[in-house]
Amino acid sequence: MSDKLGRVTLVGGGPGALDLLTLRAWRALQSADVVVADRLGPVEILAELPPHVRVVDVGKEPGRHPVPQERINEILVEHALAGAHVVRLKGGDPFVLGRGGEEVIACAAAGVPVEVVPGVTSAVAVPGLAGIPLTHRGVTTGFHVVSGHCAAGSDGASERSGPLDAAAVACVRDATATLVVLMGVRSLGAIVAQSLAAGADPATPVAIVENGSTAEQRVTRARLDEAAGVAGVRGVRSPAVVVIGRVAAEGLLEGTSERRLAGAGV
User: Fold this and answer.
1) Strand partners of residue 178
2) Nearest to 194 by CA among 167, 164, 221
3) Looking at residues 9-19, what average pLDDT do you find?
4) Residue tagged active-site, from 33, 90, 93, 183
5) What is the pTM of this model?
6) Does residue 225 have an active-site annotation?
C-alpha cells in the first residue's frame, strides 16, 4: 500500500461516439494513472491517453463475463490504495444499469475517495439519435427504463413470467409510457411473449437501435407480435436499445404515424 492514497473516478462515457464524451469525463481520463475500461462506450479514447496510463480491460460480452463485478471492485480499490488515480470508464451513465453504485460502495468501504462523472445514457441518447422521442406531446409523457436481463432471485425475478417486472409490463399493456429495454436483444422473444400474454396490443410499435451513435447504427422496426421474428431475420445483435410504444412508430416526427394512430382511434 502506498503512503499516498489514490482516488477513483467513475466516468460515464456515453453511448459510443467519441464526441458524446463530456468535457469533465475527458479531463478525468487525461489525469488518470489507470483506466479500467468496459467493452462499450467511447473506447477510441483509449488510444489518445497519455503514454504512461495503464489500461485494464474488464469488458463484458453477452454470455461472457471474464472479469466478475466483485473482481472489478477489487481492481479499483487495489490501484487506488497503491496511490493511483483510477478512472473507471463505463458506457452510458454509471448509475443507469451500469452497476456504478456497487463500485461506489466498494470504494467507500475501503476508504477510497470516489467521484462520479455522469454520462450520456444510451437509454435516452440512442433512441434520440435514431429519431425516436421517448416522450411526445399527444402520444406519451413518460418512459420506463429496464434491463433485459432477468436475474433469478433478484427483486422477485425468479417468480416472474418473463424478464419484465410488473411496472414494465403495464407500460406496454396499457400504453401509459414508453418502455426502453437495455441489454434486451437475447430476451426479446420472452419480452414479446410476456407482453402479449398480459394483454398488450399486438400492433404496438417496436424499434430496435443497434450500435447507436456509431457509423454502424441500424434501426429495425416491427409490430410487437412480429418483433422477435423480424429481429432474427435481420440478424439484430447487441449492443442495442429496444423501444416499445407508440413513439417507436415510423414516421412519427413527420406526422404520418400520428395521423394513422388518430384514425385508428388509439
Assistant:
1) 143
2) 164
3) 96
4) 183
5) 0.89
6) no
**What are the CA-CA distances from residue 258 to residues 136, 137, 142 (Å)?**
10, 11, 17
The one catalytic residue among 60, 165, 201, 225: 60
CB atoms within 10 A of CB 205: 22
Q: How many residues does the chain have?
A: 266
Q: How much helix, strand and coil, in percent to the nearest 5, is found in the chain?
A: 35, 20, 45
pLDDT, tens only, 154-205? 444 545 678 999 999 999 999 999 999 999 999 999 999 999 999 999 999 9
Cell numbers 417486472: residue: 165
Q: Is 4 among the residues known to form the active site?
A: no
Q: Which domains does the chain have, with CATH numbers?
A: 7-120 (3.40.1010.10), 123-263 (3.30.950.10)
H or E element in which residue 229 lies: helix 227-234
Which residue has cell 416472474? 160
219: CB partners within 8 A, 6+ apart: 130, 207, 208, 209, 210
Distance CA 134, CA 144 (A): 9
Residues 6+ apart with CB under 8 A from 28: 9, 11, 87, 115, 117
Euclidean distance between CA atoms 95 and 62, whole angstroms: 20
Which one of the listed residues 33, 38, 90, 93 is annotated catalytic?
38
Told to judge if 60 belongs to the known catalytic residues of this protein, a careful annotator would answer yes
